[in-house]
Amino acid sequence: MQWVYYHEELRPLDSLPGGQPDSGLLYGRGLFETMRVRDGRVPWLAQHLERLLCSARRLGLPVVHSSDRLAQLVEQTVSANRVGQGAVRLTLTDSLLIQCRPLPYREEDYRQGWRLGLAPWQRSAADPLLQHKTTACWNNLLAREQARRAGRQEVLWLNTQGQVCEGSISNIFVLQEGVLRTPPVQCGLLPGVARARLLELARREGLEVREEVIYPEQLYRAQEVWLTNALLLLLPAVSLEERPLGSGRPGPLAARFYSLLLRQDAFRTDA
Fold this sequence. Notes:
This protein is α+β, with helices and mostly antiparallel strands. The chain has helices spanning 23-27, 45-59, 67-80, 107-112, 138-149, 193-204, 216-219, 252-262, and strands at residues 3-6, 9-12, 31-38, 85-92, 96-101, 114-123, 154-159, 164-167, 171-176, 179-182, 208-211, 224-229, 233-240, 243-244. The chain has two domains: 3-101, Aminotransferase class 4, branched-chain amino acid transferase, N-terminal domain (D-amino Acid Aminotransferase, Chain A, domain 1); 107-262, D-amino Acid Aminotransferase, subunit A, domain 2 (D-amino Acid Aminotransferase, Chain A, domain 2), CATH 3.20.10. Strands 6, 7, 8, 9, 10, 11, 12, 13 and 14 form a nine-stranded mixed sheet that branches. The protein has a three-stranded antiparallel sheet with strand order 3-4-5, with helices on one face. Strands 1-2 form a two-stranded antiparallel ribbon.
């Protein structure tokens, strides 16, 4: 019999779930989705699960449950925790973990906007994991922690060609002369669920939308710069490396599109 030390005690290896250590713990092999809870419901749940299951198929991560069953488990977890407004995270490794937590963002974040820094390292756009929401995100944690020590709330990644990719927890949008731009997935970034929603919404509202390469200097010429993720929805960025973006204050269209994302016709559970 093989013994392992696990959770503060020696125990037989075959007593672990699945009879072996979780590959997510050993190798960072896992996927996750973090979703907003609003009025006890999980908007965009179907889109989050579609991305998760698509990534699992492409990366060869086994999934025991169907999409419908995962949705049911997420909703049961939210209900059991009596979450009205908050967040729920689904983590899939060799096992499944679903947990709830409060929303980490404050009203003043939206009123003041976020200050950005540049990540101290560059990333390769050819990295096959960048387009998937994997649990192997220590590099994001390290980069963002360095930004926070400098008094900034988010950090931007550049690829090895100096092109803007995304933030450590967000996608980025640049509004200039009536055109809303965001980097294409090929630059090396996660295709966010909120990113996709905002692209649809902006087109519906009459903005010209382009997915094209963006360089850092273009951000300084922008009218507004926005960050998106499923919890933030949309939050304005006001500086990069201590230089102002736009007016250096949150712009009027950021507030407008944040409100539009919150509207029932945009912030819904179906496709």
